[in-house]
Design brief:
alpha/beta, Serine Threonine Protein Phosphatase 5, Tetratricopeptide repeat, Rossmann fold, seven-stranded parallel β-sheet, five-stranded parallel β-sheet, globular
């Protein structure tokens, strides 16, 4: 592999290439080679200038369309979208059926703010393909993916879903496309979310579903563990580990690094501001690495002011970001994204710090070899549930941070102003529509039927999704006008309207997290029912930490019964609200100083583990087998199984697998017989 040219050599190389272009002595193949050399040397503008010069002097070349295409790509690289649009249009004028130019032109139009024109450009390609071969089909799939992505970003969910389905019709094994297709159906409340058709089976969908969509779909922590593992192996891979400073050359203070795309006006950013401000700067240095949208707001500014160092890693490659973290000498790196939008998991895969921690940003296990710890609490991950996680579980009294300085608008609306009836009992659920499942909606309608003078106040989805829910309510015997939708608004205004509701109804299996904390902060009780998975247990943790554990029910039937009882017994509901109000400033949930002290104690414990050679090794054995088993199961049905029946199902499937393809024992569900007996009797197994 040749080394990139230095500046002087690159200048000489460029001048020689230009001379040859002007004298028409630079064939297209040599032009592309010269442009690649300049690009590798970091000479992006020189690359553009070489293409422009060549076009001016070689306009009759039969491969001119290809040169215009590469010229457009070079212009996009320097963010000259106007120039790129012109170059790519010229490419298509010469060769209208050149698929890659349609794709890039659409992207240039999108980047210049012309999303509608971008979609139209991709549709031109999709609708006018001539010869059917591997290349043209690939171009069609790419165009459909781009259309789906842009329409999804514009909240045109139905059209985006249709475009992605067309792409899956061509190749159902496109994991990212399947992930977005399922997510779109969940967001639109199209049930069942996993609806097979002639080109896609349910197994295809369960094989392709994302970890977040799976958490919304099913209370199935074994498959969630296996899914995270499968995704990490396929999408993250095995990048080269970055060089780190030697262990002996450490610093006096522990250096803690937080990586997140959400250190801004976002649920994670709101919650983390107090944490950043309360860290003991005499004992810890705090580094923030931001990978989110390019926009500064008051929340982000608070975080910037609180940390030792703020670094925007958006413009860095994964290698560069990892090298920066390693050069900063970070001891413990905290993943505040997990498998969520704009995450930089590949940076963690390069192991830029000795210790990596999964906390708060993602409700589940990462199932990688490089996430050593997960921070939770006794409610979210009781000891009996540790088998569902690859990381070592460490616990706080309550795992979720909260900002005690959150801004609440002084403008408190009336019920009339937000479209609520004055004298009705108002149930609310302000989770995103993707968390609304058929079963949870049926439970809500059961509650409404038993409380006639009540309404359900939901956070709005798309117009189609809202109408779909109202239609479903009518099918379940509830008047559609009893479903009322709240417009999305800035967080201070959203918080200010909470007290208009009487009682929050949690969703299942992905419950309210920061939304639940907002509700409790504003003195609106929330009824919940904890399941098995992380996402299904957070709300139970929060109500217990808020001092109202009676709001966490033992079953779905108990959840419905409690909601109905509180609506019918205003004195009981008032007593719970009084308890919330009295304990708000002293309860565990909002005691952020205590959380930070506990967090820092955990960081010290992790560092001591590392120094003593006891850093935990994630247990990833047999997770490929667990995944293969899970893709064939009724995932949603797991919610109806007892814990014993749920685990017995996997024992049965593992035994079936072992009878055909023997698998080694692990420490999870496929244990040696003596381990299994010891677990049942509480004795230590003999090695």
């Amino acid at each position: 592999m040749t080394e990139p040219l230095g500046l002087t050599a690159a200048t000489d190389f460029y001048n020689d290439a230009v001379r040859r272009a002007v004298s028409r002595q630079l064939p297209v193949v040599d032009l592309f080679g010269a442009a690649s050399t300049l690009s590798d040397a970091g000479q992006a503008q020189a690359t553009v200038d070489l293409y422009r010069t060549w076009v001016a002097y070689n306009g009759e070349d039969p491969l001119l369309y290809a040169v215009y295409f590469n010229y457009g790509a070079a212009l996009m690289a320097i963010r000259d979208n106007v120039g790129a649009i012109n170059a790519l249009r010229e490419c298509l004028r010469i060769k209208p059926d050149f698929g890659p130019a349609h794709i890039n032109l659409g992207r240039a139009l999108e980047d210049s703010g012309q999303a509608g024109s971008a979609v139209a450009q991709w549709l031109t390609l999709v609708n006018n393909l001539g010869v059917i071969n591997g290349e043209s089909v690939s171009h069609k799939m790419t165009a459909l993916q781009q259309i789906g992505r842009v329409l999804e970003g514009a909240n045109n969910d139905a059209s985006a879903e249709d475009a992605l389905k067309q792409s899956l019709d061509i190749n159902v094994s496109q994991t990212e496309v399947m992930q977005h297709w399922i997510s779109l159906r969940q967001r639109q409340c199209k049930w069942p979310a996993l609806e097979p058709w002639e080109r896609a089976t349910r197994k295809d969908m369960q094989n392709g579903i994302s970890s977040l969509s799976l958490a919304c779909l099913a209370d199935e922590p074994v498959f969630q563990l296996a899914k995270a593992y499968a995704y990490a192996r396929k999408a993250i891979g095995m990048p080269k580990v970055v060089a780190r400073p030697a262990q002996g050359a450490r610093h006096d203070k522990l250096r803690i690094g937080y990586i997140s795309s959400d250190l801004r006006e976002h649920a994670v950013g709101f919650a983390m501001t107090d944490v950043m401000e309360l860290h003991d700067k005499d004992k810890f240095e705090i580094y923030a690495y931001y990978c989110g949208i390019s926009r500064t707001d008051a929340t982000q500014q608070r975080i910037k002011n609180a940390v030792t160092q703020w670094t925007d890693i958006n413009g860095m490659t994964d290698d560069q970001a990892a090298e920066k973290i390693a050069a900063d000498g970070v001891d413990i790196i905290i993943d505040l994204n997990g498998y969520t939008k704009d995450a930089r998991t590949k940076v963690f895969a390069r192991r830029p710090a000795p210790i990596a921690v999964n906390w708060f940003g993602f409700p589940g296990t990462m199932a990688t070899p490089y996430h050593h710890y997960i921070i939770a609490d006794e409610t979210i991950i009781p000891e009996s549930h540790e088998l569902y996680y690859s990381e070592k579980v460490l616990r706080l009294p309550c795992y979720q941070p909260n900002d005690r300085k959150r801004t609440v608008s002084p403008n408190r609306p009336t019920r009339m102003q937000v479209g609520l009836p004055e004298n009705a009992f108002v149930f609310c659920s302000f989770n995103g529509t993707q968390k609304t499942t058929p079963r949870v909606f049926e439970r809500w309608m059961n509650v409404l039927r038993q409380v006639p003078d009540s309404v359900l106040w939901l956070l709005t989805g798309t117009a189609d999704a809202n109408e779909r829910l109202r239609h479903k309510a009518a099918q379940l015997g509830v008047a559609p006008d009893r479903i009322i939708f709240a417009d999305k608004m800035a967080n201070p205004d959203h918080l200010a309207r909470y007290p208009l509701a009487d009682l929050f109804l949690d969703s299942m299996p992905y419950g309210a997290h920061t939304t639940a904390a907002d509700s409790l902060w504003m003195n609106v009780p929330i009824v919940t029912w904890p399941g098995r998975s992380f996402a299904a247990r957070v709300c139970a943790s929060l109500v217990r930490a808020a001092g109202v554990p009676e709001l966490a029910c033992e079953s779905a039937d108990a959840y419905v019964a409690l909601a109905v009882d509180l609506a019918r017994n205003p004195e009981r509901l008032a007593a719970i609200k009084a308890k919330l109000a009295a304990g708000r400033d002293t309860c565990t949930l909002f005691d952020t100083p205590a959380l930070v002290r506990g967090l820092e104690d955990l960081y010290r414990q992790m560092w001591n583990d590392y120094k003593s050679g006891n850093l935990p090794v994630p247990d990833l054995r047999n997770l490929d087998v667990y995944h293969d088993i899970g893709v064939d199961l009724d995932l949603e049905g797991a919610e109806l199984l007892s814990d014993e029946a749920f685990l017995a199902l996997y024992h049965e499937k593992l035994a079936e697998w072992h009878s055909a393809y023997p698998i080694p024992f692990d420490d999870r569900l496929w244990r040696k017989p003596q381990q299994e007996n010891a677990q049942r009797t509480g004795q230590r197994a003999v090695a």
